[in-house]
Amino acid sequence: MKILTEISEVLINGDSEKTYELVEEAIKEKNDASDILGNGLLAGMNVISERFKNHEIFLPDVLMSAKCMHKGLELLKPLFVGSMIPSKGKVVIGTVQGDLHDIGKNLVGIMLESAGYEIIDLGRDVPPEKYVEAAIENGAIAIGLSALLTTTMVNMQKVITILEEKGYKDKIKVIIGGAPVSQEFADLIKADAYAYDASSSIDKINELVKN
Ligand code: B1M
Fold first, then answer.
1. Mutate to test the pocket of ligand 1, among 41, 101, 160, 200 (most ligand atoms within 8 A of CB)
2. In whole angstroms, how far apart are CA 155 and each of 5, 131, 152?
3. pTM across the whole model
4. How far is ligand 1, taken at its centre, from the CA of residue 148, in Å?
């Protein structure tokens, strides 16, 4: 457990090299990947979120911790994503237009990939048309939209409108998530599902595919 606390601490301090080293060490010590993620990296990120909210730290500090998170995820990803699982279908994911937050979206991608979905990650600040074009071109079964800002969550609606206009609303399912998003908002914009976190996005997509 000591190493997981250390991972949290170096992430909070924004030391990405040390984060990488410690995550590598924790893996070698046979710590469970979910534990390293939850009790190490995410525990540190929660502290950063709280301090940022309380104006105790500033954007550059948050960026440095975000870099640590990315470094750690680089090492954890192969452990989550099982080898040779037959694909359950393609899912296009991305953070909506105007939004640069991608840590949560990346986690959702890793979890869905580990559950057997093929992920087409469009990155962040993705224009609404791009999701729809990518989904149609690749024969995707679903589009996953992430938003962390109250000012950008409205762009989720635009993706659904384009799907409707192109006649794909029933063929390509839309799942949404992110801190300001809720089930009520999903109902309002007629998204097919809302997932609170990365793990529940697996159940939600599985349900959509089954139906
Ligand atoms: Co920004 N930021 N940020 N930020 N940032 C928030 C979101 C904020 C809540 C902080 C605060 O003020 N308390 C606030 C938003 C307020 C609001 O809209 N109501 C905010 C702000 C204001 C801003 C700027 C405007 C600040 C400024 O410039 N003055 C600016 C905007 C830039 C832009 O996007 N255009 C900005 C910038 C940044 C950084 C670039 C510095 C950095 C992002 C780095 C990066 O992502 N590469 C950053 C960060 C890190 C945060 C906080 C501190 C942490 C977000 C995070 O990564 N959390 C955040 C505070 C907070 O959220 N409490 C904050 C960890 C991550 C694992 O959680 O992303 O929630 P999360 O993902 C979860 C779930 O939400 C869910 O599953 C994930 C894992 O379980 N989920 C999905 C997410 N997407 C999903 C999709 C799904 C399903 C589930 O299906 C498809």
1. 101
2. 37, 12, 6
3. 0.89
4. 5
Nearest-angstrom CA–CA distance, 183 and 186 = 5
Q: What residue's CA is closest to ligand 1, atom 16? A: 149
pLDDT, residue 110, reads 83
Geometric angle at alpha carbon 134, from 180 and 67, rounded to 5° = 50
Closest CA to 198 of 104, 74, 132, 113: 104
**Amino acid letter, 51:** R
Which SS3 state, helix, strand or coil, does residue 93 take? strand
Q: Which of 196, 133, 144, 138 is nearest to 173 (CA)?
A: 144
- pLDDT tens profile 170-199: 999 999 999 999 999 999 999 999 999 988
* Dist. CA 100–CA 102, nearest whole Å: 6
Beta-carbon contacts of 90 under 8 Å, excluding residues fewer than 6 positions away, are 117, 118, 119, 120, 138, 139, 140, 141
Contact (CB, 8 A) for 92 and 131: yes
Give the distance (Å) from ligand 1 centre to CA of residue 101: 5
Place of tokens 């990939």: 113
DSSP H/E element including 65: helix 59-80
Tokens of 124: 């962040």
Q: Residue 73's closest CA among 97, 45, 115?
A: 45
